[in-house]
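Incident log, structure service

09:12 report received: a user says their structure output differs between two submissions of the same chain.
09:20 pulled the input from the user's history:
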Amino acid sequence: MSFSSKVKGELSLHLGNGRHCEIAEIAAIVNICGQTAVFGEHFCLKIQTENFVVAKKCFTLLKNTFNIIADVSARSSGRKQVYTVLVKNFSEAETILKATGLLYAEDGQLKLKKRIYSPVVSSVCCRRAYIRGAFISVGSVNDPEKNYHMEFVLSDMFSAEQLRDLINSFGLDAKVVERKEHYVVYLKEGEQIVDLLNIMEAPLALMDLENVRIVKEMRNDINRKVNCETANLNKVVGAAVKQLEDIEYIEEKIGLSSLPEQLEEIARLRLEYPDKSLKELGSFLSTPVGKSGVNHRLRKISSIAEALREGKGEVE
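09:34 re-ran on a clean worker, output below:
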């Protein structure tokens, strides 16, 4: 089972804090998956989805909130299974659409108005419920082991912008992007996805994602430290190799005994201990000096070697 399916499964079991929250969640499902259809002489309400969890949750919410027993059916469409939740009774369909603020009249006909009706999401708990219903309907979240990405795929820009604004009312930074013929509301930061899981009230999924985030951050931190230490080690090794080359060049050209006493001593120590640090070399001197003192002497040796390479054979 994918991480996204686990989240939806957990959210499908959450029924909100009261009737008002259940209405908000129904509003999200109807707004995204619903449509009106003619049944006999009256219109009916039809919710279609390819996800059984959505159909099951919608059926449960309608029963708990309005005591309406909807018809649920399934049919195959190519390789996909399409589930339909149908409210045939006109007065029951009208009750649902009025409660969710999705009903309007046009040319003497009652129709479904796709929108987020402000009174339905006026309280924080109802906004949470609406986002929960939207995620169950058209949301998905990537496996956090791979990357952080959560999205809601909607059919029109207006609906996408309304949902984005609802999500961002919790201090998040959701964005909308057009993808082919759809509009996608998305979050890409792990911390914000954790926050939205908390908003939708999915504590188990939140805990799973947080555990993955902690492990990934520790792993990244260790990798950064290892890379830093490797870079420093390479730098030290590179410097030591250059020092040895300079010292050997001076030995070949003029002999180390031609160097001033302090430089000769450090040069011979470097040849004897090629893998020791500057601090360690300094402690081996007849008169010990610190890291900076050793570095200063090795720099002088390097300058002498460069001068010799350029044909300036003077040793100061």
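09:41 both user submissions now match this output. Likely a transient worker issue. Closing.
09:42 reviewer note: The CA atoms of residues 165 and 174 lie 8 Å apart. Residues 203-253 form the longest helix (51 residues).
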